[in-house]
Amino acid sequence: MSKTNKAIALVTGASSGIGLVTAQSLAKAGYQVFGTSRKPVVDRPGITMLVCDVTDEVSVTDLVATIIKQAGRIDLVVNNAGVGLLGGAEESSIAQVRRLFDVNVFGVARVVNAVLPLMRAQKGGRIINMSSILGLIPSPFNAFYASTKHAIEGYSESLDHEVRKFGIRVVLVEPGVTRTAFEENLTRADQPMAVYETDRSRSEGLMRKWVEQGDAPEVVADTVVEAATARKPKLRYSAGKQSRQVRTLRRYMPEGMVDKMLHKFSGFPA
């Protein structure tokens, strides 16, 4: 049994940005919240911060053991930790792509594998995996980042079927472009090529503009709270107007039309 009357939430990547605002919103919603960061940071009001590297299985196992020791259970996991990668697909080494997947995909799987036995024993729990509109549509110079989010979409939907009989639900939250520090979790391709310079620079400029005009992190946090507290959760939650529009676009418009729109929107010649 829990050592507190509050439900226990774990939010990875909670030191800043969407993760921090989400952790704060869950605390306001009545959860006892544990957040993670790769380096030690001071606790935030209502949030106990713990160090965890999601690319290190021992670190993840130690994190879960620490929370169980302090709180007795874990009711909600929000897999938010992630990094971006900007560059042409040809411009990234395979080693760089492996590191990206190690955080964005395998990091999620490590956390999930660590908490599932606990949730089965509790006969319940909820896992929220942070996806993106790039898990729904392609974006030039985001090929590998989009690939990680497509992977999270498929992984989460499959996993939800597998664990539902244990009282556990797996949910996707799909943010649009969000007003967070652009450089905060962004990596650039490690083998830049002159042939892509003009188009890549244009895409980066467009991305900066989208970030400036994007949703506030609170939009995503509110969506996470909705997904966490719903009695009968949906599989997917679009976070913000842009995300809802992209989902509708992808679902109902012909593939060729979507392709032409994205190509033109990205500044490529017809």
TrEMBL record:
A Pfam match is adh_short
Task: Tell me which UniProt keywords the record has, alphabetically.
Answer: Oxidoreductase
The source's superkingdom equals Bacteria
Molecular function GO terms recorded: oxidoreductase activity
* NCBIfam families reported for this sequence: PRK06179.1
Q: Which family does it belong to?
A: Belongs to the short-chain dehydrogenases/reductases (SDR) family.
Annotated protein name in UniProt: Short-chain dehydrogenase/reductase
The record lists the organism as Ancylobacter defluvii
